[in-house]
Amino acid sequence: MEIPVISKRTDSYSIFIEPDFSGFKERFAPLFPDAKKVCIVSDESVYSLYKESVEPLLKESFEVVSFVIKPGEASKDINVVLEIEKFLKESGFTRKDVLLGLGGGVVSDITGFAASLYHRGIAHAFIATTLLAMTDASIGGKNGVDFEGIKNIIGSFKMPSLIYMPLNTLDSLPEREFYAGFAEIMKHGLLADSRFYMWLVDNMYEICDKDKDTLAQMLETSIHIKRRWLRGILLRTETERFLTSDTLSDMLWKAISQANMFMVRQLR
N or C: which terminus of the chain has fewer CB atoms within 10 Å of its end residue's CB? Predict the structure, then answer.
């Protein structure tokens, strides 16, 4: 399933919702006819699970290297991004080569940010392996890292060339992470589409059982909702800013962080 995304006249890309990795090469390779190298950015957990699903497909057309980070929010750090920049330089990457993120929201953030910096911007693509990344983190071109306790305070906006969503990766996703992504999708329904919200309620069992057809339909609708806000970004309302900015959990975390910082200052 292909979903085209147009954020402005000069930025467009496609999102592909597929059962597995088998269609990835034919979606990815034609986009980069001049590239010779691809650097996969992933975390240790995801890379160990899907390295053999991705690398052989890429090696048919590109020289492939990898940069693997530790899982978790702690890797959303400017020093990790600088390490990626150094690695790309030492690996001889040019402006024509490509960064490929493989993972969830943290990987999406640092891959896009690193791509926006190297040679003032090289192409990047993303394979989303978590439900939250599929419905939110990988869409909209938001990239960033945390700094001095504040989430995403350093970053950039850079659209990917491709987002690929293999639904089979959700089978290995911990339940807590799956339902975190589902909560974000429920938010889209509550704030933007009451019929979609009721559809989610009616199909709750199929979603929890990770029925692939139901998941594909759910993601398609959720992505279309977010795409509408991206298209109308210049005319957006406060509610639309809410949907196209951070996730609810991100916004709550920012509020708590800011409140804690205020309390610390008052106690000094």
Answer: C
What pLDDT, on a 0 to 100 scale, did the predictor assign at position 46?
97
In the chain, the largest separation of any two C-alpha atoms, in whole Å, equals 60
Work out the angle at residue 70's Cα, subtended by the Cα atoms of residues 66 and 71, and round it to the nearest 5 degrees: 110
Residue 229: both structure tokens together: 């806000």
Taking the C-alpha atoms of residue 143 and residue 107, their distance in angstroms, rounded to an integer, is 10
193 or 251, higher pLDDT? 193
Domains of the chain: 2-169 (3.40.50.1970), 175-263 (no CATH)
Percent residues over pLDDT 90 in the chain: 69
Q: Is the dihedral of CA 181, 15, 158, 120 positive or negative?
A: positive
Q: How far is it, in rounded angstroms, from Cα 253 to Cα 248?
A: 9
Whether the CB-CB separation of 5 and 13 falls below 8 Å is answered with: yes
- Asked if 188 and 222 count as a contact pair (C-beta separation under 8 A), the reply is yes
Buried b (16+ CB within 10 A) or exposed e, 244-258: bebbeebeebbeebe
State residue 229's pLDDT score: 72
